[in-house]
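Journal club side-thread
Mid-discussion, someone asked how the predicted structure for our own chain would compare to the paper's figures. Pasting it here so we can look after the session.
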Amino acid sequence: MVYLKSFSLLSAGAEESLGAATLRIYEGNYYPCGLFSEKLLKNIDFDNITIFYGGNGSGKTTLLNLISSKVGASRNSIIDKGPIFNDYAEHCDYDLVKRHECMEIRFISSDDVFDYLLDLRAVNSGVNRRKSALAETYFESKYIKKNNDFETYEELKDRVDSKRMTKSKFIRSRLVNNNIQEQSNGETALAFWESNIKENSIYILDEPENSLSAENQLKLKAFIEESARFYNCQFIISTHSPFILSLHDAKIYDLDSNPVGVKKWYDLPNVRVYYDFFKENKDDFEREDI
């Protein structure tokens, strides 16, 4: 089911109309201006499953954030990308059809999955108390200015990390250990998706394959396909996983190309790397002693 039919980004000329004086105030940080206009990406047409593919810095997550901000998607954590981002999103346009039939529009990130896994582990451990304390440390380090100029190394590290990390990443960097990683299994992550995806809804997913093994990524792929086919869900996904990219009938925008174009999953460079690697090592997989 296609609820969100299209989305329009700003052209280079429209970006300039945001105001050069306003942009100068923020010390040359024009984000997200130029990120998509330089790749001649302006109009996005959606299908039941639409995927944004690209490497780090290609704009996958930024595009999801712009779309979710403009259409008013619900999300677990509020983002603040600054006034230019907000101005940019405000000037975007979209076409949402069958609005009355769409029960929910929701943005889900890999951080949301991590939080879910961590909360479950906290039931039988002291992680929850530690997580709350770290959340308090994060906000204090980010927003509260100390009255003296003397900081310990840990205080300085907390202050620097809080400026460059999301809350979830800040907490994760201080909590991750072997025990937590071993307990955060793929089956629990799959349960998160199964409990959070409802029928007749739009889901904007940022790298949903995180925390999942190859086998469980294939299970998630099947679940998304079934949700789109039988439960009238529309999915907009950012990923570079070959398993998620192979979603049946998915429309894939290659954000690494200039201009941005629609590609088949098996023509994408990242997928070809996997293919070439296994092809070169084919004999190892066909040994009789395996």
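Post-session note: The longest helix spans residues 127-143.
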